[in-house]
Write a structure and sequence with these properties.
Radius of gyration: 22 Å
Number of helices: 13
Order of helices and strands: HHHHHHHHHHHHH
Distance between the termini: 58 Å
Largest sheet: none
Strand content: under 5%
Oligomer: single chain
Structural class: mainly alpha
Number of strands: 0
């Protein structure tokens, strides 16, 4: 595309000592990712990471003071988010062996920069739960999920805590440990209600899982209530064709069948 050609030209013309050279490199990275050209994106990550790691090294050599600490945190976070994004790209091309340790390292650096209450950390860290679950590492997912649950609830991060609760509940549901699943699903839903996502797709997804849990426990009335609310949310969002809406309706029919209606 013309945008790619323009940024490629900028990268060639601008010296590496010029910050605009690296801005152009980063913009190229974003475009490659948006276009799904993951293999090309993977060739750009090492160059940008090497540059920022050198910046971090120099920042650590600076005189002690607020500016030094600010620069170190900034570069740690920058490298961390880059590595996390690189991990996602590895995951998208099927290289799970590289994806998870790369993403883990990125999350670790972000936490080193900001701690476990910062929005950037809470944006990236929960993805590890999905990755661990996808490769069947449920023990790691539950262990890390518990850490995130404690961090998000301690920090009154209602939306993030609700997402984490649903992720943990989903793992327990997969393991057919329904009581444990419910112990996270119910407070997770309460957090969505008091937060700003009471009518969101995220809450509908949680309620769909909650309906499955209640169905497994043969608590059919509660299951119907959860599933009907999930379907109602998707209807209000004009998303009746979404899988959440369709599955909710299917499960409602199944439960009603079991009740002899």
């Amino acid at each position: 595309s013309e945008a790619i050609q323009a940024f490629q030209k900028a990268v060639k013309l601008l010296p590496e000592a010029d910050d605009l050279h690296w801005t152009a490199q980063n913009d190229l990275l974003v475009i490659y990712g948006n276009q799904g050209d993951f293999q090309t994106a993977l060739t750009v990550y090492p160059r940008i990471l090497k540059h920022r790691e050198e910046k971090l090294r120099l920042a650590r050599l600076a005189p002690v003071g607020p500016e030094r600490e600010r620069d170190i945190s900034e570069y740690l976070s920058s490298i961390g988010t880059l590595k996390a994004n690189q991990g996602i790209v590895f995951y998208n091309v099927g290289n799970v062996k590289s994806a998870i340790p790369t993403y883990e390292e990125g999350v670790k650096l972000i936490r080193e920069a900001y701690g476990d209450q910062h929005q950037v950390y809470l944006d990236y860290a929960p993805v590890l739960l999905i990755m661990y679950r996808a490769i069947g590492q449920t023990d790691r997912a539950l262990s890390f999920g518990q850490q995130l649950w404690e961090a998000t609830t301690k920090g009154n991060r209602t939306a993030e805590a609700a997402f984490v609760a649903d992720a943990i509940a989903s793992i327990y549901l997969q393991l057919n440990q329904n009581e444990q699943a419910l112990s996270f699903s119910v407070p997770g839903d309460s957090l969505y209600i008091v937060g700003e996502k009471a009518t969101s797709v995220d809450r509908a997804s949680l309620l769909l899982n909650q309906g499955k849990i209640y169905k497994n426990l043969e608590r059919f009335d509660e299951g119907l209530a959860a599933l009907k609310k999930a379907a109602e949310i998707m209807h209000d969002l004009s998303a009746e064709d979404h899988d959440i809406a369709k599955l909710s309706l299917v499960l409602i029919a199944e439960i009603m069948g079991k009740q002899g209606r």
